[in-house]
Every structure is written in structure tokens, then in C-alpha cells.
Amino acid sequence: MAGRRSRASWQPHGVTSRTPAQQVALATRILDNRHIGDVADRIALHFGERRYVIGQPDLARNLLADWVQRLGIARRRPPFVDGLDPALAAIIGDHSASTTIDRYATIGGAPMATEHVKAADKVQRYELGAGYGGVLLAWSDRSQRMGLDVIRPVDLHLEYAGNDPTEPTVIEHRGIRDVDGRPTKVIDCYDLTDLEDPSYRVLTDDDSRADVTGKVHTDDLSGDAYPWRYSDGTPFHRIVIYGDPFAPFGTQPLVEGTLTTSARWTAWGAGVTDGGFPQRGTIGLRLQGENSAMDSRELNLATGPETVLNYRSVDPERPGSQFQWGPGYDPVAMAKSIRLYETALLSGLGLPVDLESTGGEPTRTEQEQIAELVAATYPEARRFDSELIRRCAAIANRRDEIAGDFDETPYGVLYRDEITEALRGGEQELDVAKTALNGAQVQSAAGIVSSVSRGEIPRESGINMLVQFFQLTTADAAMVMADAGSGFEPTTGAEGADIEEGEE
User: Fold this and answer.
1) Domain chopping of the chain, boundaries
2) 203: which strand partners?
């Protein structure tokens, strides 16, 4: 029909479509608390010309960051790493408490290295809020240990030969390097498209993408010289990717909600301020003491709550009057409305938080739901953590000065409640080991039981000996003794020489 726009081309006012890269960039700015310009744009969209008097954007509430903070707690308790060599943990950077190290050692592992935990926590924020992030593994000749540098998703470009988000073929990392004595924007390009001919190049971050590898590194690091390899020669990226780059819009409701709530809280703050200065007016009155600008002839007078204004009637025959309008809205009711919007948004994402009734503290039901959401982060965290340790081990093993022989196979990692269950099982095994008798002890205990059976030792004394000598409970000692000595009668000595009364 003529004059009618197609459904596909119609968009509400102010709505713009973002590319995946733009969406990731926006989410990253919000996570980094660098989204004041985005909130200003949202204020302009909601309030039009009033944006010029509404005040500085309010960034106090960040729903996306709050969401990430609630879910990203897998490593708040040091994760358990199965078979982690303490020497490798020290190379990564570890400051774990000795009590934690000793306790984890009882079940065959060690706490995750401290620097690993810090880097993983930081990159998980980008994974939960923007879809993905990365950690660069860099060896420091000065400190003789690994350095773990978190890379924001906006500084990464990934290419894939398949649909597996965990195995990119090309990783490009934007950064700044010294080229010809000047800080220059560059791209570190790791290309594993051909595993038989891996390459590492440094390119200028411009349209030319000029190869400046030789100006940054003295050695060629491509082909057979590619240094990042496992013991079997297989090359790997020294950047470990955390998350799924194919899902950049997963947090879009929170991204949009963060901008909207910030705009509304900004307006709320302006309303609270305006409420202290209600709009006033006069009819038939003229302000005494007013000044007029020489050029514009506009009347002006500085006023405030401390100012007393004196008016006179324009027409003495018709006395004037004053009036005052009340506040445009109730700040308390408006705040509750905004909080209700926040709660509804979080509830829609599976995390209901009744801010009004609980003061922001989750109920028992909400705690269970939070626990389920947190547990859902474990698989990706486990994949990332295991791969990071594995690659750190491979890098350390290739260093001549380390001469390490660290395990380069995938590592098992446990989190929070998983650790509690593993430790509980380990303690039970230790308890069993404490109560179990070895071969020699069994023979000694059997000798005591035999002596009781022959009447050489009273049953009660035999039980006490089992308790004292073998750390058994009285009940367990009685079970070992069974019926032995129930009808105890003392036997004579081997040569029939009974001790006479009074003899020693």
C-alpha cells in the first residue's frame, strides 16, 4: 500500500541497531565505569531539552556490574587444583595461606595460584558482562615467573576455522609497543591456521597493517621458531580466551537497563533538588529592589531559601497575590518505582531480589537461585583455568633456566561447595586410616585377645590395652575381644608356682 512503511524498516524514535563489536564495546565501557557519555545520550533521549538543566549523569547504580558481582564468585574461596606442583604455583605467582596449602594437600592438590585467581576474577567480569575476554601469558626474565595480563574484549579480534569458540585459529591483540623509538599502536597477531606453520607477527594498527615484527623483536618467532608449544611440539596461543565471542548480546537487557536506570536516577536527583525550590509566581505584584540589565533590560535578582522577597502592588486599587506550585512528583514514590523496575529486570534474568522488603539481602529462595546461577559458571571457569595452568606449565618447561618437568595435561579444578565435598571425603578417608591396624598391630592385638581367652589377662584389662595401645574406642575394642574372657578364671604360672599371700 502506497505511503506505508514496511514493518522491517520501522524503528521507534531513538532506537539504533548495534553491531556485535559495538555491543561488546558498550558493555565493556559499563563494566569499566566509563559509560558517562552513554548515560548522557540516554538522558537526552528520555528528557529532551531538559538534559541541559538535569545535572551530571548519576552512575551510582550499575545493574550490569552488580549482576556480574553476584555471579562471579567461583574463586572467592581459593579453587582446588588437582596435582598442581607447588613450584609451578610459585612461578605463576602464589601467596596462599599455609593452612590452605596443607589442607588441600591432604586430597592431592593445591590452591590455585594467587595471581591466577586475580587475573581469572578480572577476566570473568568481561566474560559475564560482555561475553568474553582473554589473558596473555608473558614470561618475565627479571622475576623468573609468569605474568598474567587481562585483555579486554574490545582489544581482541578472533577468527575461527570452525564453530568452536574455545579454539580460535587467529588471535589479534591491540596494544602499544615501542617502534622506532615512538609509542605506536600495534596488533600482535598469532596465527595457528596451519599448525605445521604457526606464525607470530606485529602489525601497525592502521589501514596499512605494516609488518614491524623486526623492529619489536630481535628474533623471528614464526614457523619452526614459534616458541609457544607443548612438549609434543603442538603450538598453542599464549592468549587464553574466556567465554563465547559468538554471543555478544547475551547481556543486552542489563546493558539497556543500566543506561535507563542511570538516566532515571539522574532525573530523580534533579527532582529532589527542585523540590526544595518550588515554582512560585505573582499576580499584580512587582518585586522591589530588582535590577535590570543595561543591554537586555531583563529583570534579575539572585534568590535562595535564605532570601526574603518584598513585593508591591502594581495597582494600589487592586491588591496582588502570590501562588506556589507543589513538587512535580513525590521523590519517595519515584524512587520505589525505579527500584521496582530494577527488581523486575533482575527477576527476568533469574535472580529475583526484593529490594524493598529485604533491603537488598537475598531471601533463602533467592540464595538457592543464586547458588544455581553461580554453579552454572563452573564449567567455563574450569575449562579456562585448566587450560591456563596447562599452558603456563608448557611455557615454564620450555625455559632453560627453569628445567621444569611440569604436567602439561589438563588439570582438574574444583570450586566452593565442590571443595567442601572433596575435603569432607578426604577427612573421612583419613579417619578410616587412623583406625585401621597394620599387619604387625593386628598380630599384637590378636595376642592380647589370645591371652584373655587363655585366662592370662582379665577381659577388662585386655579391652583397656586395646584402647590404649591401638587408639580404639571402648566399643570397638569390645567388638575385637568378642566373647574372649567372658568367664575369666586366672591360670597358674607356667611352672605352677602360685604367688603366696604376702610374697612379692
Assistant:
1) 17-140+247-276+330-436, 437-481
2) 187, 211
